[in-house]
C-alpha cells in the first residue's frame, strides 16, 4: 500500500484521462444489477445477506453492533449501554439542547433588523441566507459558531481530534499573493457521518448544501441561513438542480475573490458511507473550475462506529450518545489547483481529486451510489422484519 501511495502521489500520475488509460490497482465494487423488485422478504437468507454485504461493502457496518446496529451484543456491552443510558446520555442531551438554543439566540440577535441575501435559481426557488453580513454581527456568528461546534463535539465524546496537515491550506501571506495564485473557494470532503458537519463548522465555518426542508425547521433553520446553506430538493431531476448548481458555482467564485465570503463545503459523494470506501464523485462540485481544499475524515472505533451507513437515524444518535469516547482523524491535503485539461472537463477534475483522496486516505474506491444504498437498506429491512 505504501508503494502504491507513492506511485500515485505525484500530480502528473493523477492527471490521466478517465477512459481506458487509467490504471487503478484498488478493488472496485461493481453495481452489476439491481435486485429483482418482485423478490419477497421470505427469499432472503443469511447466506444471501452475506453476499449482499460483499456487493454493498461501502454501506456495511464494521462494529460490534452488527447489521443496522441490531446485532446480538455480549453481556458486557449491554451493561455498558444500560449504564450510559441512565448516566451520560441525559447529560449530553441536556447540554446539546442548551448549546443549540444558545447559538440560535446568538443568531437571532445578530440578524435582528437585517435583510437576508436572496438568490433565485432557474425555477424561481428562493435561496435565503445571512452569510453575506459583515462587521461585528458576522464576526460574532462565525466565532461563536466555531467555538460551540467544538463544544458540541466534545459533548458527543470527541475530546480530541487528530489532524495532519500536508501543507498550508490557504495563501494567507500577502507577500506570496499574486494574480497567478488562485484562492480556493471549495472544501471537498468524504461523507461519513453528521459529525462531519460539526467538524467542518468548527474548522472552516463554510456554507453547506442542505435539503430545502432544513430552512423551515425550528432553531436549525435560522442557523442554516447564518451558515449560508444552499437548499436543494434531493429527489428533483428537473431544471431546479441546474439552478442550484448555478447558485453553488456563484458562491464558490465569490468565496475565491472575497475573503469575507464563506467557502462552500461540498460532499461530492452525495451520501454517507461506512468510512472505509470512497463513492463516485458528482462533477457538479467542480463546475467552478477553481482550486479546492481536499479533506479526509476517518472515525476509528472499537465498539460503535459513528459512520451513518445502514442504521436508522434515531438508533444511531442514541448509540452514539452511549459511547463514552469518539475519535476523529483528519487529513488536510494541500490546495489542489486544476490543470487546463481539468478545467475543461469537470468529470476529469472530479475523478482526479477522488483518486488523490482515496490514495492519501487509504480508502477503497467503490462505484455504487445512493440508489444502491437504498436497495441495500430495503433488503435489510425486509430481512430483519421477516
The biggest sheet, with number of strands, parallel, antiparallel or mixed sense and barrel status, is: 5 strands, mixed
Per the principal axes of the C-alpha atoms, what is the gross shape? globular
Q: What's the count of strands? A: 11
Average residue pLDDT: 83
pLDDT < 50 stretches: 1-42, 168-180
Helix count, per DSSP?
Answer: 13
| Widest β-sheet, arrangement of strands | 3-10-9-4-7
Helix content class: 40-55%
Rg over alpha carbons? 22 Å
Order of helices and strands: HHHHHEEHEEHEHEHEEEHEHHEH
Structure, briefly:
This protein has 386 residues and is α/β, with parallel strands linked by helices. It is built from 13 helices and eleven strands.
Features:
single chain, alpha/beta, two-stranded antiparallel sheet, 13 helices, 11 strands, globular, disordered N terminus
Structure report:
The protein is of the alpha/beta class. Helices cover about 40% and strands about 10% of the residues. The chain contains 13 helices and eleven strands. The strands form four sheets. The protein has a five-stranded mixed β-sheet with strand order 3-10-9-4-7. Helix 4 crosses helix 10 and helix 5 runs antiparallel to helix 6.
Amino acid at each position: 500500500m505504501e508503494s502504491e501511495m507513492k506511485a500515485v502521489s505525484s500530480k502528473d500520475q493523477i492527471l490521466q484521462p478517465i477512459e481506458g488509460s487509467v490504471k487503478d490497482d484498488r478493488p472496485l465494487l461493481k453495481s452489476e444489477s439491481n435486485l429483482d423488485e418482485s423478490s419477497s422478504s421470505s427469499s432472503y437468507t443469511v447466506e444471501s445477506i452475506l453476499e449482499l454485504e460483499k456487493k454493498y461493502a461501502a454501506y456495511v457496518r464494521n462494529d460490534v453492533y452488527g447489521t443496522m446496529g441490531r446485532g446480538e451484543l455480549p453481556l458486557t456491552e449491554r451493561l455498558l449501554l444500560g449504564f450510559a443510558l441512565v448516566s451520560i446520555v441525559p447529560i449530553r442531551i441536556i447540554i446539546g439542547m442548551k448549546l443549540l438554543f444558545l447559538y440560535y439566540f446568538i443568531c437571532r440577535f445578530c440578524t435582528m433588523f437585517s435583510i437576508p441575501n436572496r438568490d433565485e435559481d432557474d425555477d424561481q426557488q428562493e435561496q435565503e441566507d445571512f452569510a453575506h453580513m459583515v462587521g461585528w454581527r458576522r464576526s460574532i456568528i462565525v466565532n461563536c459558531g466555531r467555538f460551540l461546534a467544538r463544544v458540541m463535539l466534545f459533548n458527543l465524546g470527541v475530546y480530541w481530534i487528530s489532524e495532519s496537515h500536508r501543507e498550508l491550506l490557504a495563501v494567507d501571506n500577502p507577500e506570496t499573493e499574486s494574480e497567478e495564485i488562485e484562492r480556493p473557494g471549495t472544501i471537498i470532503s468524504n461523507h461519513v457521518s453528521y459529525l462531519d458537519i460539526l467538524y467542518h463548522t468548527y474548522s472552516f465555518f463554510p456554507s453547506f448544501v442542505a435539503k430545502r426542508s432544513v430552512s423551515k425547521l425550528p432553531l436549525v433553520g435560522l442557523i442554516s441561513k447564518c451558515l449560508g446553506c444552499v437548499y436543494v430538493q434531493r429527489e428533483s431531476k428537473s431544471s431546479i438542480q441546474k439552478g442550484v448548481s448555478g447558485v453553488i458555482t456563484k458562491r464558490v467564485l465569490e468565496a475565491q475573490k472575497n475573503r469575507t465570503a464563506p467557502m462552500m463545503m461540498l460532499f461530492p459523494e452525495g451520501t454517507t458511507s461506512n468510512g472505509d470506501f470512497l463513492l463516485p464523485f458528482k462533477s457538479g462540485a467542480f463546475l467552478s473550475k477553481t482550486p479546492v481544499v481536499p479533506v479526509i475524515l476517518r472515525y476509528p472505533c472499537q465498539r460503535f462506529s459513528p459512520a451513518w451507513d445502514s442504521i436508522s437515524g434515531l438508533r444511531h444518535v442514541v448509540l452514539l450518545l452511549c459511547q463514552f469516547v469518539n475519535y476523529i482523524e483528519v487529513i488536510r491535503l494541500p490546495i489542489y489547483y486544476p490543470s487546463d485539461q481539468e478545467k475543461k472537463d469537470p468529470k476529469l477534475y472530479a475523478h482526479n481529486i477522488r483518486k488523490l483522496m482515496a490514495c492519501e486516505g487509504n480508502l477503497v474506491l467503490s462505484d455504487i451510489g445512493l440508489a444502491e444504498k437504498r436497495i441495500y437498506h430495503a433488503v435489510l429491512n425486509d430481512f430483519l422484519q421477516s
